[in-house]
Amino acid sequence: MANSTSIRIEQTLYDQARTEALVEHRTIAAQVEYWAKVGRAALDNPDLSASFIAESLASLAEPRSDATAFVPRSQRG
């Protein structure tokens, strides 16, 4: 089990995380961690949209065995 630390957050943010966690099939803690990762990446890369960052993080989380190899159009038969 990973180390954990308790923090205090506003009830409104907690309620929003609970709602979104249900939709995304995450725990509330995992939802807040996800938002923090997206936010950190957005701050580090202000030229990228939040949706692009979120999609990129989702892509990185997918198993590589499920990935489809890229084939340039010029090589497609």
Overview of this structure, please?
With 77 residues, this protein is mainly alpha-helical. The protein has a domain at 11-58. The chain has helices spanning 11-24, 28-44, 50-61. 56% of the residues lie in helices and 0% in strands. The chain contains three helices and no strands.
Summary of the model, kept short:
The protein is mainly α and 77 residues long.
> Mind summarizing the main beta sheet?
none
Q: Please provide the ordered H/E string of secondary-structure elements.
A: HHH
Strand residues, percent: under 5%
Distance between the termini: 48 Å
Write the SSE topology:
Layout: H1 11-24, H2 28-44, H3 50-61
Q: Which characteristics define this entry?
A:
single chain, 77 residues, mainly alpha, 3 helices, 0% strand, elongated
